[in-house]
Amino acid sequence: MNQKLMFSMVAASLVFSNLFAKDTIKNFAVSTINNINMVVPKPSQKYAPSEVIILLKEGADSNRFIKFFSSAVGDKNFSHQALPNLNTIHIKVPSMQMDMIKKMIEINPVLNSMVEKIEPNYINIPYATCNDPYFDKLWAIKNVAQEVNGKRGVKDADMDIEEAWQISEGSKDVVVAILDTGVDYTHEDLVDNMWSGNSCSGYDFAGDNEGNNDEDPMPDAPFDQNGHYHGTHIAGVIGAVGDNGVGVTGVAKKAQLMAVKVFRPNGYGYNSDILEGLNYILEQKKKGVNIVAVNASYGSAGGSSGDIMERTIKKLGDAGIVFCTAAGNEGKDIDKEPVYPASYKASNIISVAATNQQDRLASFSNYGKNSVDVAACGENILSTLPNNSYGYLNGTSVATPYVTATAALIKAANPEANVKDIVNAIKNSAEKKDGLNNKVATAGRANCYIALSSLKGNSNSAPVASNVNGSTTKNQPIQIGLKGEDRDLDPLNFKIVKKPNHGKVVIEGNTLTYTPNRDFVGEDVCEYIATDGKSESNVAAVKIEVKDKVASAPIAKEDSVTTKVGDRVVIDVLVNDRSDSGGLVLDSISTPTCGVAKIVDNKIEYIATKEGVDKIEYRVRDRAGNKATSKVTLNVKNRYSFTKSVAKEDRVRKEGRDTILIDVLKNDELCSDVEIIKVSKPRYGEANIKDNKIEYSCDKNRRDFFYYTIKDATGAISTAKVIVEPF
Fold first, then answer.
1. Cβ contact 425:410 at 8 Å
2. Nearest to 624 by CA among 592, 670, 579
3. What is the pLDDT of residue 139?
4. Angstrom distance (rounded) from CA 129 to CA 329
């Protein structure tokens, strides 16, 4: 499998939070002015100072409110966003503070009469820690006590996802909405499972730092800053394409993924953006899109019971949508210090803590026997990252999508299941763990297989047949395996419904034998169905290519390369390979042990991370589909060739009053990474350390000199002279 793991990938213990301030709900003051409820945030809770979110009374006309508000405010920069499905309006007045906006509504009798509640526009921000993953092991799916990122697991400390696939692998009829930083919908392991409702597989409600929408939910660049990779990782856990020979596999590997981007380039997610995203999800649901679950791997200290956000989440439940959210990563009891949306009580919410490979509560995970419903695997989780990359993340953020995907599998297997059925199935099937007693409400870790088994219907499901292909040569029979899937695991029989035009076929079991007519060369087709004795499948095709002769296999020859730690090298392995059929391409590569590698433009791009002898096995494929394998041997040497770091004298030239940047390390003898720790005062000019170089300036065009001192990783110190010559 071609695992393109990005070295030193930001592998985040990540859940989005609004600083998760240590204030409980009692720290919110609720006052009433002219019957308008106004939530007043504490100073520790971040919000947009010139914005509010307004909940209108039932029956109030949002267009009428905006008309009167616009007239009253008198600010040409005033902006608004009405969310009709939520009976909510987001207001922004750059020239006014939040309390001024409230007072203006208070004193205007028309506006006052239309408003039920005013809330701050809370800010959600990400936080993260890093690790350096090398192993591509999906232990949450099947844990056999393997080692992942230096940590060994406990056998069966997984969610029995592999067993669950015997019941359901998901369905294209089921859609999961990912409310996050966006999704790289062009990723090789996601593209085939992205929602097909529009060209971008979703929508962007936080296109720039001002919250202006740009429709495209692609993650912001650079993706390794401000957590922009987060949503793509979540998407892979839920629904990376399975059985495609690429990367990883998601839990609901046949479901559709809808990207709803609500976090801005600066890493902030405002409640107004999130409400727009939820409004969009409700709109799509009303249009007939079968959205069954929302993944919300973020959180905020800003919130309270019965606020606009909780009311909106309840509306999702009324529409048949489960809302799965992360408990947070501070290792605290959120019964005492609430975070939202995890601490809301809406019946369609499932709040998720994280467990590790030993089936224990992860050290970073929040908990709460009244606020957190269930735990799921959330440490050392390998999944997709933008730009066709893969990496590990930790956090309740990555535990949550396992539960979201379980909801999707349940709905795929049981189309009649409602929100209550799905939520109860997940909670009631949790595996009890001693370490989760008094930590989560169920005292257990989610089990995908048991959850699906508890709701598996008794009605028969028709089998599904798949198209298959085969290739043979003139006058030679060929055997081809027929493919059929049955959700009920009933035994299948196959039968031909359309015979081929240029040959004969016989079926025994699930094997079709095709014999071409004498001297026939070309393409032939027949059709078949699968039956479980109660229902028949769709009609599937068998395409057979009959060739005149067999093309010889390509020849792949071994290659060898010498490089240094940290260097990037591009290896054109095809340059000395050969194929009679032509069209030779690099098909796949193995995972190296001393670095990271990926395929770029039919070549291998390799970056060494440690000294040693490395090997990469690669496979080539020609135009005829024939394949061959070989390997590249890489001799990785230490980046530095000296045993001791010694600073060497430098001579540079400077013209006039120009400021120059001197790379004094360039000709030093180095045994490791070094740091410039000191620069002496020049006779005439000024010298300062900048980016491990020396910035020199002087308003005189005269010969000058100074000294610099370096220190290497061994602690060795060396000093040398720099002479500045005028032109």
1. yes
2. 579
3. 64
4. 11
Region of 140 (left: φ > 0; alpha: ψ -120 to 50; beta: rest) is alpha
What are the pLDDT digits (tens) for 456-512? 654 556 788 999 999 998 999 999 999 998 876 788 999 999 999 999 999 999 999
Q: Which amino acid is at 382?
A: L
**Nearest partner of 650 among 701, 706, 689, judged by Cα:** 706
* Residue spans of beta strands (DSSP E) within 153-267: 175-180, 202-204, 256-261
Instruction: Determine how many CB atoms are found less than 10 A away from the CB of residue 600.
Output: 12
Number of residues written out for the chain: 727
Q: What is the CA radius of gyration of the chain?
A: 31
**Closest by Cα among 194, 200, 180, 165 to 16:** 180
Q: What angle do CA 149, 155, 157 make, to 5 degrees?
A: 80
Residue type, 257: L
Angle at 495 between CA 489 and CA 499, to 5 degrees: 150
Per the CB < 8 A criterion, the answer to whether 237 and 189 are in contact is no
Cα 271 from Cα 122, distance rounded (Å):
5
Residue 409 reports pLDDT greater than 80: yes
How many Å separate Cα 286 from the centre of its chain?
27
Residue pair 159/402 in contact (Cβ under 8 Å)? The answer is yes
What is 489-556 written as a DSSP string?
----EEEEEE--SSEEEEEETTEEEEEEPTT--EEEEEEEEEE-SS-B---EEEEEEEESSPPPPPB-
Q: Which residues contact 108 (CB under 8 A, 6 or more apart)?
A: 68, 72
Asked if the bond preceding 222 is cis, omega within 30° of 0, the reply is yes
Residue 384: closest CA among 572, 237, 284: 237
From the list 17, 168, 397, 718, the catalytic residue is: 397
Name the phi and psi angles at 519, rounded to 5. Answer: 65, 10
Which one of the listed residues 90, 187, 228, 230 is annotated catalytic?
230
Amino acid at 233: H
Tell me how crowded residue 32 is: count the other CB atoms within 10 A of its CB.
8
Separation of alpha carbons 263 and 206, rounded Å: 6
- Looking at 180, 189, 273, 614, which residue is catalytic? 180
Verify whether residue 230 is a known catalytic residue. yes
Cα 280 to Cα 487, 514, 594: the distances in Å are: 32, 51, 46
* 210-240 tens-digit pLDDT: 656 667 888 877 777 767 899 999 999 999 9
Within 13 Å and on the Cβ side, how many CA atoms surround 694?
A: 32
Closest Cα to residue 346, out of 321, 365, 366?
321
- pTM beyond 0.70: no
**Whole-angstrom distance, CA of residue 137 vs CA of residue 131:** 15
Tokens 């609430």 sit on residue: 338
Distances (CA, A) of 356 to 121, 226, 441, 473: 35, 25, 18, 53
Give CA torsion, residues 144, 145, 148, 149, to 10 deg.
Answer: 180
